[in-house]
Amino acid sequence: MRTCVELKGSISVAHKPSFSTAWGRVHGHDYIITASICRDGFHDVVVDAGEAGERLRELLSKMDGKYLASSAEQVDLPEEEVYVVPCNAAGLSGECLAKHIADLLGASWVRVCESGYGAPCFLYER
Predict the structure, then answer these.
(1) I need a labelling partner for 78 at 20 to 30 A (CA). Which of 37, 40, 68, 103 fits?
(2) What is the dihedral angle through the alpha carbons of 12, 114, 123, 38, rounded to the nearest 10 degrees?
(3) pLDDT tens per residue, range 61-73
(4) Whole-prediction pTM value?
(5) What are the C-alpha distances in Å from 113 to residues 33, 39, 73, 81?
(6) Residue 101 φ/ψ, nearest 5 degrees
């Protein structure tokens, strides 16, 4: 049994996943992000949801409207237009984005979903 607090947010970003034969060009997404902070067992309070929500909003505001680059990618854009995510892929993947957000928030799991019916979601779980 676990007790969790789920937080949600969204961002609009661009990326170029060169590793993908289908989508290896610059394109954009509206991502819906769900992060969960959990503790084993039942707890009356897992975390201050207001503070955790603010940390998620602050993080997502740094990404929103930017080009998301993997750390393995060379980008020819002004620095203020790029947010770099630690990732060894040739372009940012949803998996790397989910892990990065989880690492920064100390979340138990993070789900990054592309908007739209039938669009994929990417999950990182500790």
Answers:
(1) 103
(2) 60
(3) 999 999 999 999 9
(4) 0.93
(5) 6, 24, 22, 22
(6) -65, -45
